[in-house]
Write a structure and sequence with these properties.
Layout (H helix, E strand, L loop, with lengths): L1 E2 L2 E4 L12 E3 L4 E7 L4 H4 L37 E3 L11 H8 L26 E3 L5 H9 L1 E3 L1 E3 L6 H9 L16 E2 L20 E2 L38 E5 L13 H4 L21 H6 E3 L15 H6 L6 E4 L16 H14 L15 H5 L2 E7 L18 E2 L2 E2 L20 E4 L5 E3 L2 E3 L1 E3 L18 E3 H12 L13 H4 L31 H5 L21
Parallel strand pairs: 4-13, 4-14, 5-6, 7-20, 8-21, 11-12, 11-13
Antiparallel strand pairs: 1-2, 2-3, 7-17, 9-10, 14-17, 15-16, 18-19
Helix pairs in contact: 3-8, 4-10
């Protein structure tokens, strides 16, 4: 039902007494770009009008960014220092590092945020850093022209594997929410870059029991990281079960902690059980391998699972107008934003995708270059969510929402943790979120400026932090917005509230999560994002480096 160029969302019932009814634009495509390991203070902290330690210094009005803060045992606050995007620091950001950095107050359950880089003896001030603006100018341009989230929190308290699972499946628990072990979250990465169903039983994952103690008595929790539960786009009934939407997942390699579908047997094998564990994802002897082979695309020139097809890249689908309804994009390490990797080209990679979607591609027959808005901007409106999978060990001054811990005897999770879900493992620290769409921005006399979700600062804005509903978001916010946009059901239909889509902090009816980013009633013109590297550089990278080997966003899964 369209209303003034928008669509009235009247999708599935969230609970027996709630239904959504909110006028929002309908997007024909949603793209989720997942970059690596940053906080807002780190990535966007380079405002030249710096005013001293722990002082607000927004790069545009309303942004909640501060310069450093208090370190554990410090008399004076620690100011942030400049770093290049590619500087190799290798900061710890596993679950144990999260617990250490959080330094939770046992009474309030709030993080003190004062043990950044704490090694048990002293503070390493490298963690108090901001990136040179010249290194990440495309990100600033996206933020100041489109949308910036002040209060986007990673759902999990830890590294990349779990973050990517939350962004694809809505959980890092090893079993479905109907099972008694559904609160046992995977908390750390695998012990190698080999991960997922095809690896069989390689090592025990590291679990967090929200009730206070590890519990791996269920044999399914002793396998490699391969979990028989649903995802945003697949369901557990039958074989090769999709939810009626077209989708694609782009990742450098098949067996890595960033390739979330590899850990879901429904995608890996086309059946939601562990019987084929150890077989390669997409093995055509198992249900034809159709889920994996039709939806997961890798950066390789000779990928057996894709019959030796040439390099797959999200830019190809934009160029050739094969863009599915839902797309995940995971970068190669050479253009990820991970601090231990080479090449400062992550911002160009993201900016080039935004430009290709917004204004088309030179030479494309179906999506030609069109200043002001091409096919996927005007005719087939597209929303792009750009986020970073975890905090990477960097300092950030905004503590996450309260973290609730339970007790093992008796095994309980106390209120107000919602439905007991996530108790002991939700939420993580802030990560950046940028939103791009034809309906995102703030009108001015001269065009548009960026929109800030949870804007705060000097009067007349509310004081910082403005961490109130509906301006607090997490990974589940993206999942639920996507479901509502395409009329999809919740990931879990059992009513157990076991996934992030139901439990997103801004998912309280009638509010649609992230809806504040789409406040324009009419489409605006696209604004070009200037980049250092052209999209062709990424689309055919093997031509520039014949020795290039596709690699996940980091080559060290232990700290990723």
């Amino acid at each position: 039902m369209k209303v003034s160029g928008k669509i009235l969302l009247l999708p599935f019932i969230l609970a027996a007494t709630f239904a959504y009814a909110q006028t929002l634009p309908h997007f024909q495509h949603i793209i989720i770009i997942v970059q690596e390991n940053r906080t807002p203070d780190n990535l966007f902290g380079s405002n030249p009008s710096r005013g001293g330690c722990s002082v607000e210094f927004p790069f545009e009005p309303g942004v909640d960014i501060e310069d450093g803060g208090m370190g554990y045992g410090q008399v004076n606050k620690i100011c942030s220092t400049p770093r290049h995007l590619q500087d190799s620091l290798g900061l710890g950001h596993g679950h144990g590092d999260w617990i250490n950095q959080c330094d939770q107050d046992p009474n309030t359950h709030l993080c003190k945020m004062d043990k950044v880089c704490w090694n048990g003896a002293q503070i390493n001030t490298d963690c108090y850093a901001y990136v040179y603006k010249t290194d990440v100018q495309p990100y600033f341009d996206i933020a100041t022209n489109y949308g910036f989230a002040n209060y986007m929190f990673q759902t999990n308290e830890g590294p990349s594997f779990e973050a990517h699972q939350f962004l694809f499946t809505g959980t890092s628990a090893g079993v479905a929410p109907t099972d008694q072990y559904s609160l046992d979250f995977v908390a750390e990465n695998a012990d190698s870059t080999d991960s997922g169903c095809s690896e069989g039983q390689i090592s025990l994952p590291k679990w967090v029991d929200p009730r206070g103690a590890p519990d791996i008595t269920d044999p399914r929790l002793t396998k490699a990281q391969c979990y028989p539960h649903d995802s945003l786009v697949t369901c557990g009934t039958g074989t090769n079960c999709d939810k009626g939407v077209s989708w694609a997942y782009y990742s450098p390699t098949a067996e890595s902690i960033w390739t979330a579908p590899a850990a879901i047997p429904e995608v890996c094998y086309g059946e939601n059980d562990l019987n084929p564990l150890g077989h390669a994802c997409g093995d055509i002897s198992i249900n034809g391998g159709t889920e994996w082979n039709n939806h997961v695309f890798l950066e390789t020139t000779n990928n057996g699972a894709h019959n030796g097809a040439p390099i797959f890249d999200a830019l190809d689908d934009v160029t050739n107008c094969n863009l599915p309804q839902i797309t995940w994009v995971i970068p190669d390490k050479l253009w990820s934003d991970h601090s231990t990797e080479t090449g400062p080209y992550g911002p160009s990679y993201v900016g080039d995708i935004v430009d290709a979607v917004g204004e088309g591609i030179l030479g494309s027959q179906c999506n030609p270059y069109t200043p002001g808005g091409g096919r996927f901007w005007k005719q087939e409106p597209t929303a792009i969510f750009i986020l970073w999978d975890d905090w990477g060990g960097w300092f950030d001054h905004v503590p996450p929402p309260a973290v609730y811990t339970g007790t093992n005897n008796p095994p309980t999770c106390p209120a107000p943790a919602p439905n007991g879900w996530g108790c002991g493992y939700v939420y993580g620290f802030r990560v950046p979120l940028l939103v791009v769409s034809p309906y995102t921005g703030t009108p001015t006399q001269n065009g548009y400026t960026g929109y800030v979700s949870g804007a705060c600062g000097a009067s007349p804005l509310p004081p910082c932090p403005n961490k109130v509903f509906p301006f607090v978001h997490d990974f589940g916010s993206i999942l639920r917005f996507t479901e509502l946009n395409f009329g999809m059901p919740n990931i879990d239909q059992s009513g157990k509230n076991g996934y992030a889509d139901r439990n997103a902090p801004d998912n309280i009816p009638p509010n649609v999560p992230l809806s504040d980013f789409f406040g324009l009633s009419n489409q605006r013109d696209f604004i070009h994002i200037q980049t250092v590297k052209d999209y062709k550089y990424f689309q055919g990278y093997s031509q520039y480096d014949p020795n290039w080997v596709p690699t996940g966003p980091d080559d060290d899964s232990e700290v990723d």
